[in-house]
Write a structure and sequence with these properties.
Blueprint: H1 5-32, H2 38-53, E1 58-62, E2 69-73, E3 76-81, H3 88-101, H4 105-136, H5 141-170, H6 172-180
Antiparallel strand pairs: 1-2, 2-3
Helix pairs in contact: 1-3, 2-4, 3-4, 3-5, 4-5
Amino acid sequence: MKEFKPTIYFLLRFGGVYALSSILYGFFIRKYHPQADPLTVWTSDVTYGLLKLFGLAVEKYPTEGYPSIDIYWKGQYAISVFEGCNGFILAVLFLVFIVAFQGSWRKMLWFIPMGLAIIFLLNQVRLVLLTIIAVDYASRMHFFHKYFFTGIIYGIILLLWYWWAHIHRESPKSQNHASAG
């Protein structure tokens, strides 16, 4: 049982912090219901701004009766940005792994902001491309929304986790600990 102790502690830290974060986030978004929460509004504002920056004539409106923001392009409804679209849960998932896996705080100070920035940028690219796909390639929207972008973002998060585990494994503290066994 002693050999599984680090794994068990990791799983308990991961599960506990993820559950607590999810519960607190649930209270946060319920506070704003039926309007969209501030993170979702901010995400849709950034998406809208990027689309405008690329020269696309887009419009955005709060979804009537729902906690989301609708984005229109070419005079057509394109996407609704809900709380699940703002990338917050993805960021929490990434962050919880890094904290649960532990490691050097000095390394966390650069790795966590870098990982969160990557997740935020990927999510924004996803929303911009989904807006275009929804209008110009509507028959492919389900595939891109449900599978393609989900796979890419979770794949990148897995790569970030792997990178963190690799960085942690190479740290002098880990090497000293490993050589003692």
